[in-house]
């Protein structure tokens, strides 16, 4: 699909902001009689931008490029149903959110795509919500449901693995969602309604979502607290389409179509029409033991119940509905039931003197997580009475982090040395059971299949933020990690396999050098090594091919990543511009691809190591206020990535194709965001925003060249409209339209079409 005029205009907006910023800067330089101010630039409440102030020496975890979005920015610019929406316009980021209440929204960064959940880290405060049990689009997605948009104070995104404080999973970046705690009593009640108009193939309808949120917080002496409850009731568009290479015998109604590689894939129905009911309860409680020592406890409970239904396009010659003997209808008709519990304890000091420390212990537990569906289809539009129940109940992870900070020359001195110890354990429990009566999850008869195992990691790290000179800051550190996988077990078709354990150790050095050329210009260079160890799902997920049962690779090697970035930033009174050049070389990248299994002639798909992958590109980010007229604020970004497979001996193709020299799957060459906000009065904020994603592939040999079909990854341009009105001090309202231009596109799944969103918030 050729880029349209709209996509060119969207991509050009950041360059226009950049040009206006430079012009205004030059004009200010010639007309002002005062030297540039050395105080930090204060961003307005609607900018989505990188920090242009000098990072504080007391925060050694963020030595390189970062961007931030605040609650005020989110309220003014975003139609926020879920917490993922808050990041919608941050540079180079994309969260694959298929529907409101989606349980599988994976974060993609500028150099890794939506199949790389274990290549980024996501935290709520100091609590990891990244599900490092997998590296995929399903059970590997971060547990976003543990926080709601109303609780956010701000979100920080660190690009790249340049801090020793984080594991090698930070190669794509680290996202910190920071919640707020009111200093005085506060109660907020918020109601959000959305309705999507959808029309594709033979599925047409309006799909609504309703969310009610209540938060309360405050402080009483040494005790502070913040609690929240959010209820969601959502209906989604089809999340999949059911296809067949031929017209099922004895049926009518097939829609001729092709799949992503151009082969016949006629559409026979829609699936994944999901009705979701979610409840999120959470609380944060803190006690100031002394003026410099605080203890805190976090708890979050997430409940999800859903039902997915199917719509057949097929009929028999008499006009009665039919499933055409296609088992795909059975797998797309299912029930969901899940209860997850998150807890954390912390002890933290803030002495503002020579030494500080922090201890954080967390635990995340899948108390219950079941999905059950019929085993197959019967005659006409019926299902078999028996079925399958897949469970993640018992899956969990625990983490512990001990960190200390030593300031040899006192608070604000030239050195700030930080270090710490980390330990984690991720446990996967994924049995599938036979059901005698599939709508009844208690009718379990026997074990159908199983996969389980665990991984543990222990790490030590140290880092020194050293102010070499007034304008030079060097941050140098390293991380030593020891990893182990154990207790791997697979069962299927009466065959049990006890998988071998694995061990690995590695050391990852980090370095960042920042030069403040002047009060308004900065250059930052960063280099780092990162090591990502296999997740338990990558190691022990069962591959069944005929009567052959094998692990994808019980000897899977860790992937080793070398990253570098050169960033140039220029701060203005009303904005900033930044250009970043980045490159990342990864050896033994773990990617799901077609390869061979011993004693089986036909290539199959499983996780294996790719010899070498290179990601390199350029990112331009700009932000400017009061452009042309007072109250008009523009921000945007453009990112180009050349993501190339340099060598891959494991790839096998029956068609004789190769993956060497091809583009890495799921990484678009171009991304762009553009946000224009106009404030005609202090009470109003009206935003028009756009997102562009260029060509990307989902196959290693880049043979998926058919667009706008189920399974494809399409180029898209999507515009959103948002208007926020502060009625009075207690009451505010907003209205918006997502996908204003009603772009119909697939990212494997069909994505939402035009959606209307309204919100009313009352604050006591």
Entry summary:
The protein is mainly beta and 764 residues long.
Show unreliable segments.
1-9, 11-60, 544-550
Please count the beta strands (DSSP E, at least 2 residues each): 37
Integer average pLDDT: 89
Tally of separate helices:
4
Distance between the termini: 51 Å
Please indicate the percent range of residues in DSSP E strands (runs of 2 or more). Answer: over 45%
Q: What radius of gyration results from the CA coordinates? A: 26 Å
| Helicity, as a percent range | under 10%
Report the structural category.
mainly beta
Specify the biggest β-sheet. 25 strands, antiparallel
Q: Choose one word for the global shape.
A: globular
Describe the structure.
- Residues 281-740 form the TonB-dependent receptor-like beta-barrel domain.
- It is found in: Cell outer membrane.
- Residues 64-174 form the TonB-dependent receptor plug domain.
- Keywords: Cell outer membrane, Ion transport, Membrane, Receptor, Signal, TonB box, Transmembrane, Transmembrane beta strand, Transport.
- The chain is mainly beta and 764 residues long.
- Helix content is 6%, strand content 54%.
- The protein has a 25-stranded antiparallel β-sheet that branches. Strands 1-2-7-8-5-6 form a six-stranded mixed β-sheet.
- It is globular and about 85 Å long.
